[in-house]
Design a protein that fits this description.
Blueprint lengths: L6 E7 L4 E8 L4 E5 L5 H11 L2 E6 L5 H4 L2 H8 L3 E2 L6 H4 L2 H8 L18 E4 L2 E7 L8 E5 L4 E5 L2 E2 L2 E2 L9 H12 L7 E4 L5 E2 H7 L5
Parallel strand pairs: 3-4, 4-5, 9-12
Antiparallel strand pairs: 1-2, 2-3, 6-7, 7-8, 8-9, 10-11, 12-13
The protein binds zinc ion (ZN) (2 copies).
One zinc ion binds next to helix 2.
């Protein structure tokens, strides 16, 4: 999925088919891995195929399918972890427990090198991405958006035709809809996004057709 000058590849990981996403610049061959939930060998294969140097590992939130392999990938790549918001600390500190309850092996607790908050910026493939704190699916969920490139990574906040579940610890349905309506919809209809599960979409498509937003 090409966006103007940033290239993207999606690697579905874990039994939850989570969209671990590689983003990189073809000119600099530098990039990031977003949400390495598991299946580290598959992620490393994808990194090798692109030939990129991974500068950082980004987390949209603290659920196991997004963060379960972050500690191992950091060890393998030597790249720092940035995100999510510190409100997800309670999830990241219990990832190994979550792995045991879901029957997923090799999961380790992890804390990022940098917590993120509303208004922060992260660098992805040489481009600045704004951090939006979007609680609701989890209290510390963040979204990464580059307004010039009209491109965002939304984690499990918003999906094509659906929204994130809110029945897990710390979930808040009213906060989730408020996050989407006050922070994501105003980004503009032409903003394309990769979500944590399933196909990509655009803000405009969801504004017009998502039954949770009508
Ligand atoms: Zn989640
Ligand atoms: Zn997920």
């Amino acid at each position: 999925m090409p966006v103007t000058s940033i290239r993207a590849a999606i690697v579905p990981v874990t039994p939850f088919q989570q969209n671990c996403t590689l983003l990189w610049s073809d000119s600099t061959k530098r990039g990031v891995v977003v949400d390495p939930g598991g299946d580290v060998p598959r992620i490393l294969d994808a990194v090798e195929q692109t030939g990129i140097a991974v500068e950082r590992i980004l987390l949209t939130h603290g659920h196991i399918d997004h963060a379960g392999a972050a500690a191992e990938l950091k060890d393998r790549l030597g790249a720092p972890i940035e995100g999510p918001h510190e409100a997800d600390r309670f999830l990241l500190e219990h990832l190994a427990d979550a792995g045991r309850s879901y029957g997923i092996g090799g999961v380790r607790d992890v804390l990022p090198d940098r917590w993120l908050a509303e208004g922060d910026e992260v660098e992805i493939a040489g481009e600045p991405f704004a951090v939006l704190h979007c609680p609701g699916h989890s209290p510390g969920s963040v979204v990464f958006v580059n307004r010039e490139q009209r491109f965002a990574l939304v984690g499990d906040v918003l999906f094509r035709g659906s929204v994130g579940r809110t029945d897990l610890p710390g979930g808040d349905p009213a906060a989730l809809i408020r996050s989407i309506k006050t922070k994501l919809l105003p980004l503009g209809d032409d903003v394309a996004f990769v979500c944590g599960h399933g196909p990509t979409s655009t803000i405009g498509q969801e504004r017009a057709t998502n039954p949770f937003l009508l």
